Amino acid sequence: MNLPAVDRAKENGVTLIVTVDNGISAVEQIAYAGSLGIDVVVTDHHEPPAVLPEAVALVNPKQADCGYPFKGLSGAGVAFKLAHALLGRMEPELADVAAIGTVADLMPLVGENRALVRLGLERMNAAPTPGVRALASISGAEPGQLSSGRIAFGLAPRLNAGGRLERADGAVRLLVTEDENEAGELALRLDELNVERQRLVDETVEAAEHMWQERVKELSGRAPEVIAIAGRGWNAGIAGLVAAKMVERHYKPAIILAEDEATGLCKGSARSIDGFDLYAALTECAEWLEHFGGHQAAAGLTMRREHLADLEREMSRLARERILPDDWTPKKKADLVCGAAELTLEAAEALKRLEPFGNANPAPRLAVRGAFVTEARAIGKEGKHLRLVAEAEGRRLETVGFGMGEEAGRLLPDVSVDLLGELSVNEWNGRSRVQLVLQDWRFDAFPVYDCRKERDFVQGVRLRAKEEGRCLVLCASAEAKRELLAAEEAGRTGAVYALYREWTAGEAAAGEASGSEPSAAAASEADIGSETEKRQQDAVRLVLAGLPQSREDAEGLKSALSAERRPIEAVYIYAAPAGSGARIRAFPDRQLFGRVYTLFRKQAKWIDGPDGFLRQVSEAVGWPLSVVRMMQDVFAELGFLTVDRSNVTVHASPPRRELDQSPRYRREKEYGELAALGSLGPRELADRIRKIAEIRA
Questions:
Q1: N or C of the chain: less Cβ packing under 10 Å?
Q2: What span, in angstroms and rounded, lies between the C-alpha atoms of 18 and 52?
Q3: Residue 241 phi/psi, 5° resolution?
């Protein structure tokens, strides 16, 4: 309420004002109305202040002396109950508007709210009014298929757009009209306003983000616990939407205000995070506020610009005191971890029986682990949404992520991810398919991107370093390193170039200490030496220019990974020129070890020489003499035979030991597997690279 509106009511002969969803804190305005002979009935659901207005009646279940059993009604729900009292009966025809208001205000869909929304949805699907029908149609909803989700993301934003940008009259007229043509025209106008509202929100969010980053710079990187920003020329009607966007980005309570340059007053909205009672905190900051109201998660307020710094300081102090350490991290809970085979149409239909879903009664969230991406692309206007197709347990899984279009570039084929979403049914051209509506996703381990099919590895590595920032680039050969360093802009990419077998953590520092001229690779390493010390916990992005194909390469890769102590964020693998070292064959399997040992037992004793028994074994099994000699060393370490200078004796009763108990066996097997990386497919390669990282750790 505001005083000019009360004056206009008096001029028009109004003698009774009934508020809806406001008024519980309008002490001055209601007293003024009373002085003019106007009665006021307040229907509200916001937290009552210490001093209540002197209205004819206060209808609010949150009043301390109110015995009404359900306290979670929305403003629309309270108005519905007043209508019930006036009529002497519950009128189902009014439940549609009450349901829309309950969902739009993000009220908990439990208890009476759930019953009310269910009743309203039944009404809207069975016998929609012209306004609801027109609004559903322009929102893309199928006739008779309205749900709480379609209200929240389709109907409610359009109904709100008028009041945010122009006047609320259009939404009211739409909901009460009985004329189909008028309903269509009004719905079209609200849709146009909603598009304009979306544009304004996007622009204001970017402006608010810029102001926030500048504020953090002013404080030398020490960000306040609460975002408090005021902008001149902003639309106060979208402040709540902008605040919600800032909470999404930074997961901090956010206050967004639109400043009136003429009066110096700032009016806007605030949104909170779990664990922080916004209304209680604002109550303690009331000395700097002209007016405020709301509840734990959201609030509206008016204040003067000069008090903004005080509000930020005090709200941040309260946030530090009241928000627990774990509550600063956003959490999304999975109700069930399930297999892809369980995501069926039958399961989706069964879950529908739990509707309506919403705040405090969310749709069940299902997690699928270890799914391989097969396709990911941005869809919709301006590519805002994500279409992701994955494979899990041999089954195809279709998903859609609203507002996740920017994620498509990270979800390359064969990357393994965990998915969290809500099961739904996608109906198109008369066909029904089950799909997962994504709520979130994550790599199930650090991602390994197989870029070996790219023809120009130099361009690929340079582009990766440019896009990802500072990367650690490990080269499989001197040839690969020379090609990278010879590229025209290689030195300006911020990458570090190094050989597998030459790079060590202290190489650059050692070179400088000795007074010698550091190599190009060492110089680049020196650039990040201090940064590595400062950011020990920061993850590193590895770019592998080639894969090891020789023992030397394998040893170099392992050494490089062991020297890099930071956790790995991602690995990108490119095909690059091979080194000149001698290639090694794949590591022999256990069956071959058994076959060679059988030949050794038959021989029992021999003299180890260049043309002796071991060469005969080599020719018999078709493997090089060096491999057979390695097997002899493994059997010696296990105690299966004894080597005394050149004399070899096989034990008649050897101890029972596994091959991997031999250090030589483990070492040679690891080198063999590293050398065979190039022959692996994308998924197998990613799995092997992660195992190398585990060995490194």
A1: C
A2: 16
A3: -65, -40
